[in-house]
Amino acid sequence: MGRRMQRSRWIAIALLSCIGAISIGLIALAQQPVTISFLVRALEADQLQILVDEFEADNPDIRLDVIRGPNAADAVEDLYTASFLLGDSPYDLIFSDIVWIPKFAAAGWLTDLSDRVSEDDLADFLTADVEAGQVEGGLYRMPFRSDVGMLYYRTDLLEEAGLEPPDTFEELLDASRTLQEQELVNWGYVWQGLQYEGLAAGFVEILEGHGGFWIDPESLDVGLDQPEAIAAVEFLQETISSRVSPPGVTNYLEEDSLRVFQNGNAAFLRNWPYVWPEVNREGSPIRGQVALKPMVSEAGRSSGACQGGWGFGISANTPHPDEAWRVVEFFTSEEAQRQFVVEYGYVPSRRSLFTDPQVLEAYDHYEQLLEVAEQAVLRPPIGQYAQASDILQRYLSAAITGQLTPEAAMERAAGETRRVLGSA
User: Fold this and answer.
1) Which of 55, 76, 61 is CA-nearest to residue 328?
2) Residue 232: how many CA atoms within 13 Å on its side-chain side?
3) Which of 22, 115, 233, 292 is the most buried (most CB within 10 A)?
4) 302 and 236 assigned to the same domain
5) How many domains does the chain have?
């Protein structure tokens, strides 16, 4: 009897020890930080680290796993897409370019954030930035940083020639020719003409300035074969045929056009806001001799600035939606955006930061930049955007390289686009 009682006591002690060990393990597990992961272009992963460190210091219960991806945005999109198509995506957040949102939302890969943010909360963000995240009444992306196309010009050259900054397409061509005839500069106007997304983005601005449209997202009407769109292509073609733009512009990316402009070989440049700190950095040949303005338009038409930018969506299959939202709130806050903008010169998505004293101390041109940002034009927010953009790029390239007339190119582009939208 005594031995049985002693054995029972040892069994009870062993069970209590096991229970205690399990309890301690469960408590330790519960105290482990939740990991929130997202994929970012390698360059921006490095830049975001200052905000990652600050967030983790203030939120010890959450660890951020920022996965470095390719620097090409379309390659990052492909990786996100593949992860969803293969099953449960490993990403809790989607750091997204604005043109991905309609596709990702339509596929059911993103969480609707509408119940987490009010209209008052959204009021400080640029209107186009907010609209870029909205699909069929839902909100699937919170803006982090914005981007808009604009026209840069050489103030010293215009002053020497007695010219004012151009407001219309014709004035841009005339000013370019005058500066070239006076041998003040080799080329008048440089832009991005390679067959890639940058060509479509720049064309959106020229199209808006001619009063045309690409695709109406509500009706899915296509306007590429309308007179306004053909006139927009003719303008691009004329910049090359009249040698206002160099023949090689049909192979230019952003960096190529910036290099020509920064080296003093062009008077006007269409590009993105990142150009400003580049042309004004120490050692730049044109430092202090550049100004910016909205893209030119036809007389009586409004100008357009193609809306770009990046923001955060929450994956529909994340097991940690509340923690993911805390990350989104932090990164899109005024304080975080201010720090990121001042450090790296990106464009904020919050209106208040364009006139913020700390931002203006670093970049005094941001008040001008707000005027451009308020004229932003979206690329068509449709689920078939990737196919539509590929069609436009191919036929624009055919037109500006002389393989097709503007009329023939736009008629074919419109026809193929309608077939894509119709089949969908």
Assistant:
1) 55
2) 31
3) 233
4) yes
5) 2
